[in-house]
Amino acid sequence: xxxxxxxxxxxxxxxxxxxxxxxxxxxxxxxxxxxxxxxxxxxxxxxxxxxxxxxxxxxxxxxxxxxxxxxxxxxxxxxxxxxxxxxxxxxxxxxxxxxxxxxxxxxxxxxxxxxxxxxxxxxxxxxxxxxxxxxxxxxxxxxxxxxxxxxxxxxxxxxxxxxxxxxxxxxxxxxxxxxxxxxxxxxxxxxxxxxxxxxxxxxxxxxxxxxxxxxxxxxxxxxxxxxxxxxxxxxxxxxxxxxxxxxxxxxxxxxxxxxxxxxxxxxxxxxxxxxxxxxxxxxxxxxxxxxxxxxxxxxxxxxxxxxxxxxxxxxxxxxxxxxxxxxxxxxxxxxxxxxxxxxxxxxxxxxxxx
Length: 354
Known about the structure:
Layout: H1 3-17, H2 24-38, E1 49-54, E2 64-71, E3 74-81, H3 94-98, E4 106-110, E5 114-118, E6 133-136, H4 142-149, H5 158-183, H6 187-194, H7 204-246, H8 263-276, E7 285-289, E8 294-298, E9 301-310, E10 316-321, E11 327-332, H9 342-350
Parallel strand pairs: 3-4
Antiparallel strand pairs: 1-2, 2-3, 4-5, 5-6, 7-8, 8-9, 9-10, 10-11
Helix pairs in contact: 1-2, 6-7
């Protein structure tokens, strides 16, 4: 199961359970811990997920925060949790106070349903008051899943997240502003547009008139975009249907093949596919069989090779092409040994992620 499916399963589970969750502690157990597990962290390993993490502040000793996620013994994420039905606010919140005394680069404020991600974009070691990412598990978008995946244990990289955090923060804020202006245009927005089509003085009466016109114009514009896309989709569908009806089915030339795809090769393919589905959509993963070996490829293209499986001889092996374009073979005693190369398979698959 890939990361996207895992998160969506959590969303379905949370929706069913939420009305039965009565306390903050129950929220942690039912929502927060499964979420951390989905991100690849061992919630039962106190060296990795530290509950009730102590953050001493000045003369205050023994102050605690709900969770700290650590890597190599160093906290990388601080997490403060609330009851699932409680609003999330940083006002006088421990997360805001503890961030600057910790080595953690990210803070998460959550009620198990909504997750707000913070860092220090505005001032070093001082947590921003506004999150750079907000995710509601019950209202997931594909873009949210992609951003959450960056916090997965297997892909976590501070520099990668920070590089996109600034853009996420400001595009999110601008998107919200644009949405608000589209629904309820502010006087400043109406004036900005009306001055481009009206030469007179913008009086209160004119402003009121143009407010209605701006709202209508936005509505018409959005509807035109939707209609144009629908028309394009219908035209493309009709063209494909016509082409399918007009073109006679080609009769393939039957040639005798010396290639026989074995059950063992297909089993090996399934194992490789199950591993790399963490980073590549299943529909993009293909195989091709040759006389001497069996290949797993991306997008059905030979130049997007994941690995080769040599399973015909008594000495079975899996091979990868290294950076110098040389083939490196590794012996397999059983097909289960393929799992020993999961890290290498995932690293190779990452090259073809886009």
